[in-house]
């Protein structure tokens, strides 16, 4: 029924975490019924240089006030980095409404290829909207 309909929003992003995060934030903030939105996010980033190429989810959480701290490199600091990541992911709003697939940008083969991964996170939503990572609401 229209009063309970859900919408699946497909967002592929290629090395554009900052603009994608603004899109995600505005999508939820400007929706009349944000609880009915489910996002399918395909992230293609440089997984080895996270600072220079942040993920959409990291940037979205930072916009919402949940930012990762600075951590020293190395195995000895992996535990504290993981604990910080867990804190951010647990506190960040609406992440339970985001289904994501992430792979290294070197494996990217264009937007159609990225969109093909959406089937892996597509659920049983009644409607579907396909947008770009830099869409503004």
Describe the fold and architecture.
- The chain has 137 residues and is α/β, with parallel strands linked by helices.
- Helices cover 31% and strands 20% of the residues.
- A four-stranded parallel sheet has the order 3-2-1-4.
- Strand 1, helix 1 and strand 2 form a beta-alpha-beta unit.
- Helix 1 crosses helix 2.
- The longest helix is centred in the first third of the chain and has 14 residues.
- The mean pLDDT is 90.
Total of helices = 4
Shape: globular
Number of strands: 4
Q: Element order, helices and strands?
A: EHEHHEHE
Mean pLDDT: 90
- In order across it, which strands form the biggest sheet? 3-2-1-4
Strand content: 15-25%
Could you name the ranges where pLDDT drops below 50 across 5 or more consecutive residues?
none
Distance between the termini: 25 Å
Alpha-beta content class: alpha/beta
Oligomer: single chain
Measured as a percent range, the helix fraction is 25-40%
Biggest sheet statistics: 4 strands, parallel
Structural Rg: 15 Å
């Amino acid at each position: 029924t229209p009063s309970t309909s859900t919408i699946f929003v497909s967002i592929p992003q290629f090395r554009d975490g900052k603009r994608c995060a603004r899109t995600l934030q505005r999508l939820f903030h400007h929706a009349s019924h944000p609880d009915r939105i489910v996002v399918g996010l395909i992230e293609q980033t440089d997984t080895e240089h996270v600072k220079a190429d942040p993920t959409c989810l990291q940037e979205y959480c930072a916009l919402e006030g949940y930012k990762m701290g600075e951590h020293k490199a190395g195995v000895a600091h992996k535990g504290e980095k993981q604990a910080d990541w867990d804190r951010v992911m647990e506190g960040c709003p609406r992440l339970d409404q985001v289904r994501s697939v992430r792979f290294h940008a070197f494996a990217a083969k264009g937007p159609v290829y990225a969109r093909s991964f959406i089937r892996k996170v597509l659920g049983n939503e009644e409607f579907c909207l396909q947008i770009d990572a830099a869409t503004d609401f």
